[in-house]
Amino acid sequence: MKVSNVPFKGTAEQETELRRRIAEHKGEKGSLMPIMQAAQEIYGYLPYQVQKIISDETGIPMEKIYGVATFYAQFSMSPKGQYEVSVCLGTACYVKGAGEVLEEVKKELGIDDGECTSDGKFSLDTCRCVGACGLAPVMIVGGDVYGKITPDQVADILKKYA
Q: 83-159: which CATH architecture?
């Protein structure tokens, strides 16, 4: 299991709420999905520690929980940063150089797709289309859209948020 590079900072209140939500569904057929959705809602992601609580409380093996967490795109194994960075890899963006932009973002932040910087400042996710094909390639940082960008612009864009 890949462990996040960001230390787990769950609180006692979050754990109490998770255990309460698990108790609401315990024993129900098909309860794993709603429990995991509740856990993601509470913590914002599903780190090992949260999956372990779910396993311990439900008796569902960690392997099954991990399998569900990695299969469904709605679940994240890493926390989201203060600034979520997204690079569009849809056809128009990709053809116009989004792959190179993505590589530069990874290099600048020192993280891979789906990860968060150790200071919690930035997280990186790719997406398939943001609907701004005329601006390709597109990168979004904290909700701000940057279009027609090149790899050499990435560092200056990210510095605005550092």
A: 3-Layer(aba) Sandwich (3.40)
